[in-house]
Amino acid sequence: MSTTTVNYPEEFKGFAISDPSEWSNPKLTSYVPKTLSPKDVDIEIECCGVCASELAVLKNKWSTGPLRCLSSSYGPKTQCVGHEIVGKVVKLGEEVTEFKLGQRVGLGAHAYACNECSRCKEGNDQYCTKAVGTYSGVYPDGYVSQGGYASHVRANESAVFPIPDALESHLVAPLQCGGLTVYSPLKRGIEDVLSKGIKPAVGVIGIGGLGHMAIMIAKALGAEVIAISRSTSKKEDAIKMGADGFIATGSAEQWEEENADKFHLLLNCASSATELPLDRLLKTLKVNRKFISVGLPDIREKFEVSPFTFLQSGSTIGSSLLGSKAEAIELFELAAKHQFKPWVETIPISEAGVSEALTRLSDGDVRYRFTLTGFNEFFGTGKQ
Amino acid sequence: MSTTTVNYPEEFKGFAISDPSEWSNPKLTSYVPKTLSPKDVDIEIECCGVCASELAVLKNKWSTGPLRCLSSSYGPKTQCVGHEIVGKVVKLGEEVTEFKLGQRVGLGAHAYACNECSRCKEGNDQYCTKAVGTYSGVYPDGYVSQGGYASHVRANESAVFPIPDALESHLVAPLQCGGLTVYSPLKRGIEDVLSKGIKPAVGVIGIGGLGHMAIMIAKALGAEVIAISRSTSKKEDAIKMGADGFIATGSAEQWEEENADKFHLLLNCASSATELPLDRLLKTLKVNRKFISVGLPDIREKFEVSPFTFLQSGSTIGSSLLGSKAEAIELFELAAKHQFKPWVETIPISEAGVSEALTRLSDGDVRYRFTLTGFNEFFGTGKQ
């Protein structure tokens, strides 16, 4: 057995760091999984998308304390990330009812939701206050969760997604965090308009990993989609993705006047809130509509808007977190029906591959999403 | 004819200033009205509410330039304020269809809406981009509008409200700006909840002129209403107004934990946005609900909120402007049906009376709203 092969079920293996300075060079690490609970499922991982959240956690930008894994009550003191996981069910806790052995499934940014609170029951399990992140989340028993740049992941069935046969694994991977994160606010932000038989106008700000999927998804939902970026450098790509129009906010034009009162929804997929021309952007919203941010900035950044700006249209601003499990399933169906495909570059998993993906993502050198592949070959899995 | 008597229709008389330093001492002034347009109505004023917006305009706090009246193309270079007007129709433009001579009517913060744009047609005339404020607004012909601390006011019928007989003039006055300003976001913010047969929970922040009406209106709309204030000094009043509960944000209690995930709507009626514990308040919102501000601060103030704060519940923040004409009529019907009455102190109009009202409002010495009365006696009107 080579050193990369995993000795499941005693161990999981994954690429992990113990210090933020190592963010671009996670090392292959062996660790014990969390204790199996009756609702847990083990997924033998086939591939995993690479999400900008990973950079924020590995670089420790969303925290003011040390890496959370260092205080894990048992299991590794290292952090393995990755939360756009596709794989095969290889173990079922004794109370699992939704999945069967061998089934292809996925896992997004949450590995647990309680399924009992009012938020879970109302289809808002992404806001469950007991939810545990797929990595760097703390379970009630003190174990700090480990992500999907790994041989296996253990998660509660409440958070696991069934995946339709029509979708390819490396393309469905990025839909599970990035895609879902834009799908939920897009759907919730325009469903009232669609229900009146009106074609909604959606502005997608920031054409990167999130934004490129937002264009495709908004289009599939039936919206007129305008891509909004600082320069025209991504205009051609945005049109190919399906955008009906393009606004370059850094140009000298009076774009906010030309597009005044246009949008039913502005979805901000850019990672910085402070660098946006918010006061100008909000002028393009129709009455009582929303500007929703899904691109998460540094934890010290703040929105700064004058109350007077909102008065022009009674608009509001805020953020949206992920999407519900039901919405993930809707999104997969939408992708299968409309056959839209995220623009994905695959990179075979290895220390070099993980390092390349993280470094290039950090440098913005990605068009528009990475999926790490070849897990079965690397970890010697996939033989059952 | 005494010096206070008005020689209508050649002149209107009102209390006006020409410099912000005179804000607390408007002087009786004679002026020519704007040119009568075919849709205009002249209202002989019976009484007028006193709104905090008046202080902002008289003190010139919402502008970075000089008083707008100084550049009026014709008419007075002085500013008369007041936009919670009740009176009698005494003149009709030749195309007016909605009102008749002698009818009791009201006028709020807008004296004109175009009635032709998409916003007007969709019931959002308060956001009409061609709307003209009842005072300090600029008409297309360059006349700067003059408000209701006056003998008469001229306004487009699109902005004039019919008033039901059941409501007393001095009590309906404050409903037209202050009341409408809270009614619109309250109704729009909870109607989806009410339509599901659920009793919405509404938090009203700031128990002053706006907040005290918000408590009564939210209650009449069918909500559970929690009054939110810095100290407990207004607790007794809030309960008398109909509040079901009270939160003192300045207390040591963990009120945001006790009320986590409680509110369907937070309505901010406090005049300062920056002094609010926004990050704590937003924790009390349910998923995807709104924090709406109607208390307008100084023009230099900004909301400052971390994008992460919103993530706890996918909430949004923003402001709301006035309400539509249709909503004003709904509000009057609601007040007649539920017999709620703003807490109004009446002050007879005169230079001393206007000065007292403005000074005491500026000092916060009002429980909870002033209406200036006795206009007919003062101006020698009401004889037709």
TrEMBL record, chains A, B:
Cofactor(s) the protein needs: Zn(2+)
Pfam families the UniProt entry points to: ADH_N, ADH_zinc_N
GO MF terms, alphabetically ordered: oxidoreductase activity, acting on the CH-OH group of donors, NAD or NADP as acceptor; zinc ion binding
Signal sequence, start to end: none
Keywords (A to Z) from UniProt: Metal-binding, Oxidoreductase, Zinc
InterPro entries xrefs: ADH-like_C, ADH-like_N, ADH_Zn_CS, CAD-like, ER, GroES-like_sf, NAD(P)-bd_dom_sf
Domain Enoyl reductase (ER): 21-372
Family, as annotated: Belongs to the zinc-containing alcohol dehydrogenase family.
Designated name of the protein: Enoyl reductase (ER) domain-containing protein
Organism expressing this protein natively: Wickerhamomyces pijperi (Yeast)
